[in-house]
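Quick illustration for those who missed Monday's session on complexes.
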Amino acid sequence: MYIQVRALKNMKVVTGVVGNDIHVVANRLLELSLDARGYEVFNLGVNTYLEEFFDAVVETGADVLMISSLNGEAEGWSREVQLLKAKYKHLDNLIMMIGGNLVVGTGSAEDIIPKYKNYGFDIVCHQVDLNTGLDQLEAFIEERVVNDSDIKESNK
Ligand code: B12
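Prediction with cobalamin bound:
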């Protein structure tokens, strides 16, 4: 288990703020928090287009794509996620996460989370503070490790 947990900490994360969104504060805090938790971080910063995120994931061999959106633009961009991801090979295991203010105006997490999951995100954090979000990521990764080892065990 110790080896597995260490492996989580060495994971690579590509992060940034999607679209024409200049809200940089959460992005910087996210980078610092990821770094403090032991992830290797590639921060593309603000004003990042979806294609640039996927290019960076391929280039760095990242395990996690963590997108931030504060002005709500993510909703428009996210509709293209599945289509764009399909153009890149070997991204089936990529963990897709998004957080911030995920709509323009107001909306409830109950409506927003399933919508973004349909767009192809594994973890959706609408107006959730970043440390809670990062705890969710760790829980997701640990669950995946357990499921993978169960599958390997049953295939023996
Ligand atoms: C500062 C600010 C600005 C500054 C940004 C300066 C800069 N370079 O960063 C300026 C004045 C430039 C600005 C401009 C605009 N802003 Co502004 N801005 C804010 C403000 C006041 C604070 C944002 C901030 O930095 N907070 C501090 C950080 C630490 O907190 P946070 O952003 O809430 O992030 C937390 C969580 O959301 C979460 N989180 C964020 N991302 C992620 C990602 C993941 C994966 C996870 C897990 C968690 C997570 O973690 C953070 C810490 O807990 C907010 C209102 C508010 N009080 O929140 C509006 C706000 C974000 N802005 C808003 C808007 C609309 C704009 C403008 C469009 C206004 C305009 N008409 O021009 C422009 C945007 C221009 C653009 N191209 O993006 C809206 C967005 C509304 C929406 N989504 O519907 C807000 C909410 C104000 C409002 N109530 O209307 N803004």
